[in-house]
Structure formats: C-alpha cells, structure tokens
Amino acid sequence: MNCSLSETSITVGQKINLACRLDEPVATDAKVSFTNIDSNPAYTLQFLGPAHIGGQILTQEVTSYRVGNHELKQIKLVLNGRETPLTPLSIHVSSVIQTEQQQPTPFPIVDPIEVPAPWWWWAIWIVVGLTAIGFIIYRTKKWLKERNALAKLQEESRPLTPDEKFKSRMRKLESQGYHQRGEYKTFALELTNILKTSIGEQLHIQAEELTSEELMLILQERYRKFYQDAGSSLRTVLYELDQIKFAKIETTSEHCSKLLDESTKIGAILFGEIIR
C-alpha cells in the first residue's frame, strides 16, 4: 500500500490530504479509520471527518497544530477491522504570525485636563454591568436546563443497544442481591437468562430456547472467533449455573460474585470483538 501527503510543508491548521493507493478496490461503505499511536500524538496530525473511498484510492483530510518537523511513524489504517501500518511520513509545520507596524503616537501640544466623573455616573455603570451579568447567568442556566432536559428525553426515547441492555441487566442483578440473601437458584436463573438473551441478540440466534450444550455447539460451529476467545469461560459459567439451578452443588455468595465478574468479561468479549 502506497500513502503520501498532498503537501509536506504547511502552516498551522492548513488542511491537506493523506492519499493511499490500495492493493485492490474496496466498497464505498467499507469501515475505514486512521489512528496515530505515537507516544505524543496530540495535535501532531489531526484526522478531519470520514475518509473518502474511490475505487483503489483512499483519501483522508488531515491537518496539524504542532509547529516543527515531524516524523509520522506510528499511523495505522484500519480497514474493515484489519490494521495496516503506513509507511513513515514526514511533515513540516510552520506558524505564520501577522505583525502590525507600530505607528508613532502623536504628542499633544497641550495635555488634556482630567475631569473626575461624578458618583452617579459610576453608579449607573455598576447597575448596568450587574444587570448584564445577571441576565447572562440567567440565560445560561436556562439554556443548560433545557439542554439537559432534551438530552434526557432523547436518551430515554432511544432504544438500548444489546451491549447497553446487557450492562444494565447485570447492574440490576447485582443490586438485587439474590446471591447475598442466599437465593442462589433465582440468581442462577437470572444470570443464565441474561447471558443467553445477550448472546442471542448479538449473534441473532434463539439462544434462550437452547440448552447450554446446544448453545456451545452452535457457537463452536458458527462463531469460532467468539468461541475461541470466550468459549471455555462461557462453558464453565453455564455449567456451574446449571448445577446451582438444579441444586446439584452448594455455593456461596463469594462464588456467585465470581460468576458475575466472569460473565461481565464474557460480555466484554461478545460486544467488543468482531464476530467472524
């Protein structure tokens, strides 16, 4: 893959293009992003907006706000989940400072006579200033209140994603404290339902209607990446939950807390990884 900057010497904030010629054409709806993993990337290279795909040419608008010569060796292209490091790039960023010529100040022939302002003049300006400040504070508070109310309304009306549902249900289960009150069977039933429902929604399978063994077989055959990353942990958790549900083993609140932690890790893998 060949990548280059349209210009290698720019001023602060000047927009230029980073163009990459791909080995083969990609679809225009492909998921594309650039990342700069340098140890001190702040303002060295800023990516502006989404990348544009045109056949084998990938174009990304960039700029820089850090003055100096920069060697860009840590830029990666992420295309449909696949990371590709770019060849090192160099850029020189300079600052343009506009200076105005100082005009000589004419010296008056006669010094002006200072006349003290009356007290009521100062009083008027103080009242005007305080009124303006009070109005600004009032309008700011009103705007913040309206914005928060609108954001809350939008948040409540927006349907939750499977990831958000999983985290919300896990928090609720932990707060209900079934395992702390000794209601281990109820705890096991709820946690099993959360895991199977979340897996079903994310992978689009009827996981709730399957036994633990049937679910593990489907994951092993169809979703190998998830199975490789979390299959062993998931099989252990489901097995132990089944044992608790059918009263085949005795358990403790500490052990149930460990099952909660392990289920949270399984959820992180389920929603954080690309399922192949």
How many E strands? 10
Order of helices and strands: EEEEEEEEEEHHHHHH
Portion of residues in beta strands equals 15-25%
**How is the biggest beta sheet arranged?**
4 strands, antiparallel
The helix/strand class is alpha+beta
- Number of distinct helices: 6
Distance between the termini: 25 Å
Question: Can you tell me about this structure?
Answer:
The chain has 276 residues and is α+β, with helices and mostly antiparallel strands. It has two domains: 2-94, Immunoglobulins (Immunoglobulin-like), CATH 2.60.40; 162-272, no CATH class. It has six helices and ten strands, in the order ββββββββββαααααα. It has helices spanning 119-157, 162-176, 184-203, 212-222, 224-245, 253-272; strands spanning 2-5, 9-11, 16-21, 32-36, 46-54, 57-63, 68-72, 75-79, 82-85, 89-94. The strands form three sheets. The chain has a four-stranded antiparallel β-sheet with strand order 1-3-6-5, with no helix packed on it. Strands 2-10-7 form a three-stranded mixed β-sheet, with no helix packed on it. The protein starts with a strand and ends with a helix.
